[in-house]
Amino acid sequence: MDRGVSAEDGSIRLPVDELRRLSESYGSATIFEPQSGIENRDSGNGDFLSPTLPAARAPEKKLTLFALRVAIFEKAATGLGALGFIWATVVLLGGFAITLDKTDFWFITIILLIEGTRICSRSHELEWQHQATWSIADARIKSFRALRSSSHFIVEIVKALFRSITRVRKQSPHGREIRENPDAARNWDGRRKLSRTWTSSDVPILPYAQWVFLSRNVSKYLCWLQLASASACVVLSLMKLIKHNYGEIEEGDTDKRNLKAALNIFYSLALAEALLFLMEKAYWEWKVSYCKLLEEVRKECDLELSGSVSIRRFLYDAYSMCVEGSIFDGLKMDMVTFAMDLLASNSADEQLIGARVLCQFTMNPRFSDDTLQKIGTNISVIERLVEILNWKDPQEEEIRRSAAEMLSKLAGKKQNSLRVAGIPGALESISSLLQTNRTFSTTADEIGEKTIFRDHAHYGFWTFNQLGLLILKKLARDHDNCGKIGNTRGLLPKIIDFTHAEERLLKDENVTPSQILTVKSSLQLVKMLASTIGTTGNHLRREISEMVFTVSNIRDILRHGEKHPMLQKLGIEILTSLALEEDATERIGGAGGVLKELFNIFFSQRIPENQNHVRIASGEALAMLALESRRNCLRILKLRVLERLVGALEVPLLRVNAARILRNLCTYSGADCFDQLKGITAAVPTVLNAVMSEENKLQEVMVGLAAEAFKFMTSQESNTMFNGAGIKEAELANKILQILKRYQNPSVKVPRIRRFSIELAIWMMQNNAANVRTFKDLGLEKELEWVLESTAEVENFNIFSGTFGLSRHSTTIHSLVETAMQLLEDR
């Protein structure tokens, strides 16, 4: 049975495991350090930079070679037949017409007539064979051996003749009536659709005995006629060549002197031509029926049983080209070009044949690269595929699904994705795959109810939803395409609607995998759009955050999605990206329960170790939401999580993000929250130990937290903390110098470590005058001078969108260096 075809209802569905294989997983990069936009979107995906595989041998070469060999037989036979015809008409009938024996005259005449009939029928046989393959459901062109073995063939013809004659009725005065197509797929409600055109393979040539004279049967009759003609020619020629009874030639009769030789030549030509034709037929039957050439090629092409029609049609076309033109013309054919030509046809059956072949070759790893290259360089084919996405007739479900699958693979190549998105109306066509609608509301104070189409008995809506999201995900890897997606009318609301997951769906262990997969794909797509860099990214983040269901849908996933940590992680990463916009940060923080759910995930002990990435992502989101947002800082303080955040500094998995959150709370909560933040001083010993012993990212965030946490202590309290931690201030000062010496140039991995180190040094000198002398002796002034000469813009930002800096520090690193230099000079 064909892949994705249901035997029960005739609908076409893509298996969930195959959708999982097609679906992409996208890694995230932290926004607290600059990242290359190319690395983020391209290098993380194998489809964009897939390794070059060795070229696979094209199975259809066997067919084109076979067509060439058969065409050689055919052209040789036709050439001999033409020579024999000329010899008979010019030499025999022209030169010896009066002197020919009566039997020879009639033998020559009969041979010419039957050979003419054979050649004429041969010239039209391929046309009828093509017509016979137009009906995919009924195309079963039987071989000579199969026809010969049918003991009831003649009986059926006779019965059909009499049955049709007895049922003759008056015909309509109109030339052609609209008939019901028996092979048409049913409507969603089960009713058949009427076809306004004939299917060529079902055309009744005559009003009587319609079964006999259907066009798909005519090629069989022509084949039998040729075999009978050739056999008769062999018999007649052999009879004359064996007996040599050419009549008596009287001695001295110069008119008949060369008659015997002329007749021998003619009968020899006729015999050779007929034998060549029979050899051609025998060779055809041996390769096709005995060696199963068509079946062998079909299996090598990995086509389903329905692909037999495609293979047979390809062979006929290759043979036609070899016969009608040069014998080498057929060698230029290949299955991909053949399928693309059929896809551009106006015949629904030919379109389906082409779509099936192209889809199978596109999905096959052996042929995928070559097929995608040919499709990608043919704009007309891409436009055709995009056009097919708008075909919503249930009868065209399979071809629409095939077009969507091909575009999903095509969009995996960067250059092809640009071509697809560049076609006018392409994104609108892709949007038509997403079957979700909201009812129109007549009043401005309410929103229409959302409706997501579920799989109908005869139509797989979920399959098209998933394929549409998959195509959009692959297109969204390109920055320009993200902007086009955002500007496509009605597309973003559809995508956001698919991110909604009800509590029952998230908690049900027996939920349909396709539903979870659709939610996951939509979240991945929203994440990609929200993480777009530059002006386009700013616009998309505003658009996404202004949609009233975005944050609430993600909140529901955070609240009820403990069984689906991947969905939670994607939702959290979307919130992190949206928080790059100030207004979005306020919307997220103001949405009831979002901050609480993020902290629940961040502190949760029930999450397995292999899913700890969800806890890390929630910490990054909380740090982002607290950044430069006094309101969110106040909301966090109201949740009474300060003590737990201090405790999280001891947990290796959480301490980096816990330090970020605490620093942002200290920096942006405001002076009126001094008493609430006083408890942060309990973290100072842990922070100092981390500064002295750790490196890289952890050291950076701990130095930054220390510079802020010490501001909540008096000089006496800080001395107590140093003593409690077993660290002297001189040791900390020396560590700061080591950091500045190690990072003599800004680092993209820890872009703020020099800034935080200078801030901590400034506090130490302001808190204790003795530290000024310590820093002077250690050579801080020299290091600060080098910082001035090597500073870069990357050190002036809190966060980054790709290589774009966002959230600029209120104090530049130059100002910090000048302040530190002033302290060194004044004291």
UniProtKB/TrEMBL annotation:
Renumbered ranges of ARM repeats = 380-425
Q: Which InterPro entries match?
A: ARM-like, ARM-type_fold, Armadillo
User: Which residue windows are transmembrane per the record?
Assistant: 76-99
The protein's matches in SUPFAM superfamilies, at most eight in alphabetical order, are given as: ARM repeat
List the PROSITE patterns hit by this protein, alphabetically. Answer: ARM_REPEAT
Name the UniProt key words of this record, in alphabetical order: Membrane, Repeat, Transmembrane, Transmembrane helix
Under PANTHER family, the record lists: ARM REPEAT SUPERFAMILY PROTEIN
According to UniProt, the name of this protein is Armadillo/beta-catenin repeat family protein
